[in-house]
Write a structure and sequence with these properties.
With about 425 residues, the chain is mainly alpha-helical. The chain contains 17 helices and 3 strands. Strands 2-1-3 form a 3-stranded antiparallel β-sheet, with helices on one face. Helix 7 packs antiparallel against helix 8 and helix 16 packs antiparallel against helix 17. The longest helix is centred in the last third of the chain and has 61 residues.
């Protein structure tokens, strides 16, 4: 905590000097005034070091990022402190001191200053849209209005932890196929640029003409020559494809096409659909449980699920609700929400427990995603091994076929 050196006068007119520890200058002034002192001078003792540290922290904060795990922990700790009766400003000051992430520490410091100046926490968070989404800000605003900020932050922490767990499962399931693909590409490149050229040179030295090569050998020879002499075309083509794809998906039409493909592609499409449904149910249920109005909750949910196709269906449902319809009916008409989801939402509307029903739907689809990813991983492992084996076998056959031909010709010559 910073240390401030002060010079003050007592109520009797005597001069008093000393030091005091406080989070900032304003807090130091307040503490000294509570002691009945009239401040004439107040100076931070470690100002030069603090300035240098502040510059380093500002640099790290500008280029850093806040991980989802850090944000969930921040929500959980802030909710615990507020529930324990700690004031919001003091709770933020405590979290600032113990947070390891430089970017998050900088953000908390700015939030503390804004809240001290009388700004609502939700408005202060809105200054950092990269870290605090519309979902986050909407829930905090609802918690402030309802006087249940601690409960809202607990729900937000649970939501972030569930989302983090879902992402971890998806990444874990895709790790093995990614490693196998990288390994396969590395083997193919190594054999093509190191082993195959040596055999081709050997065949040339033995007098085998190119038109006498079997088709697999000729294909490997052409591919090897391409990698050795025109590799920049391959690298440039791959880079151009990824750049063009990135630009395309950033357009509204491109994003819509890409999201439609993600829902319809075989094998991965159904899994991605379940992931989106789980995120929709979890987000919508969390907002409804926090007291956010239904129209605002649907608007926020549509922007949080990151799929233009389902977002459009949710916004159509929002328009239908404004005209007096129930939630389940327009969702059913979209044909994008399974009957089980529609039925659970309908039951939730009738019983007044919509948020609880949505959380159950989210739990169900998250377990479905987990099971589907495990099944996919167990299926894809042998498939990838077989594919890698076929590629290596093709390279070996293309290399050894001319050798077999040469050996046969030599045997016939000896006879």
């Amino acid at each position: 905590m910073p240390t401030f050196a002060y010079v003050a006068r007592t109520m009797q007119g005597q001069v008093s000097q000393g030091t005091i520890e406080a989070p900032d200058e304003r807090a130091a002034l307040q503490q000294l005034r509570q002691q009945g002192l009239i401040i004439t001078s107040l100076r931070r003792q470690d100002a030069p070091r603090a300035a240098q540290a502040g510059q380093r922290a500002s640099f790290a904060a500008s280029f850093g990022r806040v991980k989802l795990r850090d944000m969930a922990l921040f929500c959980r700790q802030l909710a615990t402190l507020i529930n324990a009766g700690v004031s919001l400003v003091r709770a933020l000051a405590v979290l600032e001191r113990q947070t390891q992430n430089a970017r998050l520490r900088y953000i908390i410091r700015q939030l503390t200053r804004d809240v001290e100046d009388g700004m609502q926490l939700s408005r202060a968070m809105a200054k950092f849209p990269r870290e605090f989404s519309n979902l986050f800000i909407g829930m905090v605003r609802a918690g402030e209005v309802g006087g249940v900020l601690d409960e809202t932050l607990q729900r937000m922490a649970t939501f972030l932890e569930k989302d983090l767990e879902l992402r971890r499962k998806v990444k874990s399931a895709m790790t093995y196929p990614t490693i196998v693909i990288i390994f396969a590409v590395a083997i193919v490149i190594f054999l093509s640029v190191w082993i195959v050229p040596k055999f081709m040179q050997l065949f040339t030295d033995l007098g085998v003409k190119e038109d006498e090569f079997p088709l697999p050998t000729l294909m490997m020879k052409r591919f090897s020559e391409f990698l050795l002499t025109k590799w920049y075309f391959l690298v440039g083509g791959v880079m151009a494809f990824f750049i063009a794809f990135s630009v395309f998906v950033r357009t509204r039409f491109g994003k819509k096409v890409y999201d439609w493909v993600k829902l319809k592609v075989p094998i991965l499409g159904p899994i991605n659909h379940k992931i989106v449904l789980a995120r929709f149910s979890r987000t919508f249920g969390t907002l409804m449980g926090s007291g956010v109005p239904i129209l605002q909750a649907l608007d926020t949910t549509a922007g949080a699920i990151d799929n233009e196709i389902l977002s459009r269906a949710i916004m159509d449902a929002r328009m239908a609700i404004r005209e007096g319809e129930r939630i389940a009916d327009p969702l059913e008409r979209s044909k994008l929400f399974p009957p089980m989801v529609v039925h659970m939402i309908s039951v939730g509307e009738e019983t007044g427990a919509l948020d609880q029903m949505l959380q159950k739907v989210a739990d169900f689809y998250e377990s479905e995603v987990d099971a589907a990813l495990h099944a996919l991983a167990s299926t894809i492992e042998p498939v990838m091994i077989v594919i890698l084996g076929v590629i290596v076998l093709f390279i070996l056959i293309s290399v050894f076929l001319p050798l077999i031909t040469i050996i046969q010709n030599l045997s016939q010559g000896e006879q």
